[in-house]
Amino acid sequence: MARRISGRSHGDPRHADTRAKVKDDYRPSRDEILRYIAENPDRSGKREIAKAFALRGDDRVWLKDILRDLQDEGLLNKERKRLTRAGAVPHVAVLDIFGRDDDGVLLAHPSEYTGAGSPPVIAIRVSRGAGGPAPGIGDRVLAKTFPTDDPSGPGYTGRVMKIFEKRSDAVLGVFRVLKDGTFRIEPVERRQPELIVDKEFQNGARNGDLVEVEPARASRFGLPRAKVLAVLGSLSSEKAVSMIAIHAHDIPHVFPADVIAEADAVKPATLDHREDWRDLPLVTIDPADAKDHDDAVFATPDTDEKNSGGVIVTVAIADVAAYVRYGTPLDREALKRGNSVYFPDRVVPMLPERISNDLCSLREGEDRPAIAVRMTFSSEGRKLRHSFHRVMMKPAAKLAYPQAQAAIDGVPDDKTRPILDGVLKPLWDAYGVLKRGRDSRQPLELDLPERKILLKPDGTVDRVIVPERLDAHKLIEEFMIQANVAAAETLEGKKEPLVYRIHDAPSLAKQESLREFLHTLSLSLARGAQMRPSQFNGILERVRGADNEALVNEVVLRSQSQAEYSPKNIGHFGLNLRRYSHFTSPIRRYADLIVHRGLIAALGLGPGGLTQQEADRLEEVAALISATERRAMAAERDTVDRLIAAYLAERVNDTFDARISGVTKAGLFVQLPQYGADGFIPVSTLGGDYYIYDETARSLFGERSGKGYQLADRVEVRLVEVAPMAGAMRFEMLTDPKPLPGSKRSFHKAKGRARASQSRVGPRGRRR
């Protein structure tokens, strides 16, 4: 029987003597390991667990096997290099407070929970005398969480670190005046019901206004009622669709007066604490419609005889830290926003225009402060050394991607012709060198084209295009990646705190799910905890040009973890880099501004460096900016859905070529490749057969025929219903089901898997 070790002593140097007295043949029980991991979320790496239980030699091999078994059984998850209990709440999490217990203690759920079953309950601890606003029901907070030992109470307690802006129970909708003079609220969320507004609760709203309403309790008969709380704007105006997303996702979009006043009072930076680089012909290369320019580049061959064929690459980044100092109104607002948000019809910037589009934007022919990194690469693309400099620069030219590419392709214009030989050709030569390094590194290479919506002057959709992927894009991308790596290496070498950009390897569960799926296509994925991007690239290369290329790319993408920010480094799996930060876009990302401040402090580059107070908050800041990034992505996606739905609203009953983008028990999601828009086909409309969902094969197949539909199938569909403001479309399937890949034997296995899965689902869809 395993000897008990107090959870308080685990990994604690104060209890080193206790660990030393453990017998050599001691091995903890599975329950003790699980308990230790639950009680020590910050010390749950494999080495730390072994140290806590004084395991050495063969016992460490035994521990590795036990931990693998616990992961395979679904009892543990691996996040970064640490293990967590399945369904466990992160040590720093965003929580929604929903009520109180009988003793008046506030209770919360995680705002994002992906585990099985109901989300865990967290009891909120409020420190007396801490000052500041106290959290209440309905608040969203950032909190540190701690597991409890009380089996009859909440599984966690939470200590509030920050209270987000309060959200009421109000919902958004479009105010509509019907022909009979009655008022309705058209929903802007797919699951939101239509509402009735009585005249006394109109509150000045007019037809077509976007309004915030408070729903009343639903009556037994008819639609529920609501009252208008506020009119947010008219949908007849330009930029109306993005306004819905801005309000629906609580994105701050109006700068407070003190922030604008501070920005307006800022004076341009001077040469103090800076090197004069204004004679260096750095150029900016950006999208043609870019309004702010935060990076400029230059390259030249290395003249050192010891580095034959090598290059020197210079990347200069706008010095936002010169203007935005920690703790000021500008800084607090930038952190609150976390990042700029990009909609097809507008940008919600992280910083006021005076900073983002004027003082910090690297404008052609104008003096601008910057932090630059000069990197030397060998002929094989391996970085040999680098150095950071705080400089004053003057961009020699502002170029668009197609413009720079055309010059290299032999069609220069009046702006690119004078700098073709001295600036552009050396840049492309340097990219050729860096590309060798990238090819050797083998980052994950997914082929997923991005679509861009072009609008008419009135804000409606003109057309949807897939911009050509040029070498000019790849050049800037690789230069920026190397600059980001250099920043992380410098700060780590100087032992300066920083926020890393991290990307974990796919979890074992996702790996196994992908492995099972690939098996249905007669493809194999090697087993092993230490996956490499090259293993996925090998799979993608095998299906290049095949009918199932899009399918495999999509499933491999869905198997990947989500990138985020953290002060704890685990590397970046997708880029196949051991250390990586964001340094190159401080105008639009707060994470980059933190890295700039860290470099200034670590290298003694003058004022505006990272303060100790800021360094102490990096865990909290990383969680905040990771959340604002996800918020921005959701808002941008919702806006595109609404724009495309509105664009296609006049084409109900038209037929379209589509691709199946999602498969669920309820039906099929289909995407129109021409538009990048998604819609839904309910399973009940697929025909007379009874369709079974096979999660492994990502398919629905008929119980009698064995024929069906699979993720990434190309199909023909008819548009039957559109809800433009909700961004929702419903389609009808016109393509007949097909025999699914594999033999009859594999079909019956799939049928058995599906039935087994269904047998585990209770009456309300909850797994038992």
Automatic annotation (TrEMBL):
GO biological process annotation, one example: mRNA catabolic process
Basic and acidic residues bias locations: 9-26
Localization per Swiss-Prot or TrEMBL: Cytoplasm
Segments of this protein annotated with the region Disordered: 1-26, 734-768
The keyword Secreted belongs to this UniProt entry's keyword annotation: no
Keyword Transport found: no
Domain of life: Bacteria
Keywords: Cytoplasm, Exonuclease, Hydrolase, Nuclease, RNA-binding
GO CC annotations on file: cytosol
Entry's EC annotation: 3.1.13.1
S1 motif domain residues: 653-734
Record's compositionally biased regions (Basic residues): 745-754
Catalytic activity: Exonucleolytic cleavage in the 3'- to 5'-direction to yield nucleoside 5'-phosphates
Signal sequence bounds: none
Family: Belongs to the RNR ribonuclease family. RNase R subfamily.
Protein's job: 3'-5' exoribonuclease that releases 5'-nucleoside monophosphates and is involved in maturation of structured RNAs.
Protein name, entry field: Ribonuclease R
Annotated source species: Mesorhizobium hawassense
Taxonomic path: Bacteria, Pseudomonadati, Pseudomonadota, Alphaproteobacteria, Hyphomicrobiales
